[in-house]
Amino acid sequence: MPSRRVAYAVRVTSSEGDQGEGAGAQRTPAGGGATRPEERLEQAVRAAEKALIEFEIAVETFRVEVENFSRLHEQKLGPMYARLEELDARILEIKAARSEDPEDRRLADEARARLMPMPGVEELMNGWMDGDGLFPEATAMLTDQPVRPPQRVRPSEEARKLYRELARKAHPDLAQEDKERARREEFITRVNAAYARGSADELRELAEEWAAGPELKHTPSPAEELYARLEWLSQRKELLTLVARNLEEGAIGSMLRLAPDDPDGLLEDIAAQLRAQVAEREAALAALSD
Question: Per-residue pLDDT tens for 195-231?
């Protein structure tokens, strides 16, 4: 007996299918034969699969955008945040030395502790900083000197189009047997990696590889498997909804929502604000040092 949630999914997806392709499955064949009992359920599964695949493509596309923007954000702004923290620590240390107040000393020690070298800091700072301090590129950026810009890995429109087409054709959810699902999962992993690198050339090669692959055989499923399939699709959609919500509500996702059409401009605005804060702290430090 299917769950109430699945039964609801059957009604909804079947209603959607009636308006699109496959709607003819609801009619009695011209020869007068009765419609198979599983036919309406199969139509519901196909509609749910298509909807889930489109949703998963949208979530993965946004995930790559968030990941790439996060990398650019760290490369461009990371050195400025580090410089601000260093200036704050030095200001607090001077104040503590002058006041000899235990609370001032505690605040200064905490600020300095946050700047202590950590294992793997170079990896965390994406090549801008190691245990000995800022790299020359980071120093150049802070002093408005020429510096090699961060690597841009945002996928082009062509790469996005190729990715969507491949995801729709080769998605593992379209497999009818375990062997075929494993083949699709391995292939989609490579597609996702190429898309994350923003490589349209790799995606074109993968499209040619898929087109030359083995012809798929469709094996009809019994009603029990169709009900289980709808249940799985429902659970998968709930998981993807949670992933999408976490991406959107995270710091980087929230920033992207502020300027979806010009994220680079947003980075420039934040960089200008940070440069102003660095100048303020440097002036304050200079005044204390006099």
Answer: 888 888 999 999 999 988 876 555 544 666 777 777 8
Q: How far apart are CA 61 and CA 53, in angstroms?
A: 12
Which neighbouring-strand residues pair with 129? 134
Whether pTM exceeds 0.85: no
CATH of domain 157-197: 1.10.287
Rounded to the nearest 10 degrees, the angle between the axes of helix 251-258 and helix 39-99 is 100
Structure tokens at 210: 């898929």
Structure tokens at 79: 């050195």
pLDDT in tens, 109-154: 898 888 765 444 444 444 444 444 545 555 554 555 554 554 555 6
The domain spans of the chain are 157-197
Please report the sign of the dihedral spanned by the C-alpha atoms of residue 7, residue 29, residue 219, residue 164. negative
Q: Is residue 284 within 8 Å of residue 91, measured between CB atoms? A: yes
Q: What stretches of 114-199 show up as alpha helix (H) in DSSP? A: 121-124, 136-142, 157-170, 178-196
Question: Which residues are bridge partners to 133 per DSSP?
Answer: 130
Q: What are the distances in angstroms from CA 174 to CA 135, 220, 235?
A: 49, 12, 16
